[in-house]
Amino acid sequence: MGASPSGAVTVYVDPSLGPQGMQNATDLLSDADRVFNLNNTIFNTTGAPVSAIVFALGGVADGSGGADHDGCTFQSGGAIEVDASFGNPARVSGLFEAELSECAMNGQLCGLSTGEALSRWCAAVASNNALVDFATAPDWAEHGARNFVDRTDPTDRNPLSTGCGMAFISCLISQGHKLPQIAQEMVPLGDTGTLAELYARLTGGPQSQAWPDFEQAIKGLPDGVTSDDPFGAFPTAI
Predict the structure, then answer these.
(1) Within its chain, how far is the Cα of 43 from the centroid?
(2) What SS3 class is residue 131?
(3) Which of 36, 117, 140, 216 has its CA 20 to 30 A from that of 46?
(4) What is the pLDDT of residues 55-64, one digit of tens each?
(5) C-beta of residue 92 within 8 angstroms of C-beta of residue 63
(6) Where along the chain do the CATH 3.30.2010 domains lie?
(7) 53, 80 in Cβ contact below 8 A?
(8) Which domain of life is it from (predicted)?
(9) Do 40 and 46 contact (CB within 8 A), yes or no?
(10) How many whole angstroms separate alpha carbon 24 and alpha carbon 234?
(11) How far is the C-alpha of 42 from the C-alpha of 125, rounded, in Å?
(12) pLDDT digit string (tens) for 165-203?
């Protein structure tokens, strides 16, 4: 396809996807600099050039195949693969941001529940919440709402720990802590950091109060946890 106007993003497409895949790639190319600049804003960084290839990840072309890359730095993970989503370019942009945000974490939080939740929030903001079908917070709530605030799950593939992180970030944003502030505090905490430590840095309160405050806030939701943004924080995330 070619490079974005800034040269920051080069987009490729699997030609076997036909005209609809080509349209996805064209739309991503047009949107790539916006997403790239948004990512820089969220993490207060200057990203290195990356590439993105649009193809039927997992054999599907509706975005549900997700996205992938090899590492969590611009050097190791800058070759990004995104699933096509015929007729829905916002989903492709969101999937691109999910991986781009992990590059901006600079090797921290990679493969952890904290990093996964943060990258999904970045994707939601970049795509105008076009990836709601990836929601995990309702699963977390329905399966006992376990405490992943005081400990970080060493995987990015557990929907329960990711869901806890999604709801926790929603709660923080609803209290006035913007996503860029959250991201820029989370990354320096590193792989050993917890959401409780993030709470302490943002609020000035003790880490020990993070889970009780969050648990109480969850109990106070009139409709319970029905999405990854149970506190309705999305409109004020940036």
Answers:
(1) 12
(2) coil
(3) 117
(4) 999 999 999 9
(5) yes
(6) 2-107
(7) yes
(8) Bacteria
(9) yes
(10) 25
(11) 10
(12) 999 999 999 999 999 999 999 999 999 999 999 999 999
